[in-house]
Each structure stands twice: as structure tokens, then as C-alpha cells.
Amino acid sequence: MDPTPALKALDLFSLAGKKALVTGGTRGIGAAMAIALAEAGADICLVMREPAPGTQPTMSTPDAIRALGRRVEIVHCDLADLTAVKGIFEKALAAMGGEIDILINCAGIQRRAPAVDFSEQDWDDVINVNLKSVWLLAQQAGRHMVPRRRGKIINICSLVTFQGGLTVPAYAAAKGGLGNLTKALSNEWAAHNIQVNGICPGYIATDMNEKLLKDPVRLRQISERIPAGRWGDPKDFAGPVVFLASDACQYVSGELLLVDGGWMGR
């Protein structure tokens, strides 16, 4: 691992001249993180699904990035298609001029059902999108970054990286595996100056948690247990992602940063 640059404290957080590849960056936490990286100076390549025939794509994240004066490129891919996932990184490299400095793995899906009723198809879908696609992208990033001796990989994990959750067995298995994958890649690549870390969101008011937010009993149970006294907001991830993507975290690798309003400390 190379030493931390001798810069003023605030300059360590600058991403000027950096290029980031972001999955799941079109809404919620991922959109907030993509925009934060752009605000810190990075150009962004977003992985997005092809819009359905006859529909117009939602372009709020790309438009927000362009409004900041940053470059934004789009690579189309459905992360459930693992064959297509294997080609994402090369397409992103071509779009970004042959260099990717930062990989943010934020995309994910959720399926809920009691364990005795959880279907094999739902299991496979969640594991493939939330874990295997991340592994394939991280492996491609490592092949690019290790020879260059620089790079940041940030995997978006979860509270269920540490806990089992309720009626989300595949999600818990995927996010638990992602936490250890983060540490495994750090163990190999930190010596090559690649910092691999995870961010673990707590309960955040996004569409993935829509069912919980609409369930008055679960909403009350969860809200009463959060020491901060509120659910998180996507903008709560702007600072953490810029930190982990920047030179400020040069000696931080293999960590799982909780952004949970104190939930895990209680």
C-alpha cells in the first residue's frame, strides 16, 4: 500500500481527474453516491438497464451529474444477466478513455417470503444480482487496477451482513457473503495499493424498504430502535462514499463502514 499523499486535509478528499463506475446509481442510495462523487470532481460511468420498449428512461442522475460540469457515460446491462455482466467493465473502460479509478457496487434486488416458502428462483435471482455480479465486476476491476497499483472498490453491504433479518434469507446470505468478499479482496489487493471497503446502510427511506415503511407495526418497531431517532436518507451516504473513494482512506482497507444511525451499536 502506497503512503498517504502529503496534502492538506481537505485536499485528500478531492476526486478531481478520477473516473468512477457505479452500479445502482439511478435511484436511492446509489444516485446520491454517484452525484456526491461528481461533486467531489469525478467523472461517472453509470450501469443502467435498457429502458423498456416504448418508454423513456429516467435520466435524473445523469442530468444532475452533467449540471455539475462532470462527464457522464452510460453502459446498459441487466445485472441478472451474468454473461452480460462479464462485459461491463471493458465497455466502461472504452467509454471512459481506458481508465477506471473507482468501482461502486451498489445495485441490488430484494425478495421477501418466509424461509419455508422462499422459492429457488428468488434465491438464485438475489444471489446472482447481489453477490455474483459484484464478484464478477470486482474481479474485472482488480485485473485493471492491480497492474496500475491504484484503485478503490466500494461494495454496498447491509445490516444483514451482520444480522439475519426477517423473511429475507437470500438477501442475508448475499450480503453476508459480500462482507467477507470485501475482506478477502482487501487481503489480496491492499499490497497493490487497491483499497477495498464496504458501506453498510441501516434502515434508509428508499423504495427497497417500501413494504416496511408501509407496515405501521414494523415501522414503529424499527424506528424506536434507531438511536438517531430517524430513518436514514440517501444523502447520508455522500460523505462516506467520498471518503472511501478518495486519498483520505489510503490506509483504510477491508473495513465495513456502518451508516445506520447507531443501530448496530445499540
Automatic annotation (TrEMBL):
Signal peptide: none annotated. Residues 18-192 form the Ketoreductase domain. It comes from Schizophyllum amplum. The keyword Acyltransferase does not apply. GO terms for molecular function: oxidoreductase activity, acting on the CH-OH group of donors, NAD or NADP as acceptor. SMART domains: PKS_KR. The lineage of its organism: Eukaryota, Fungi, Dikarya, Basidiomycota, Agaricomycotina. InterPro entries: KR_dom, NAD(P)-bd_dom_sf, Sc_DH/Rdtase_CS, SDR_fam. Belongs to the short-chain dehydrogenases/reductases (SDR) family. This is Ketoreductase domain-containing protein. The keyword Oxidoreductase applies.
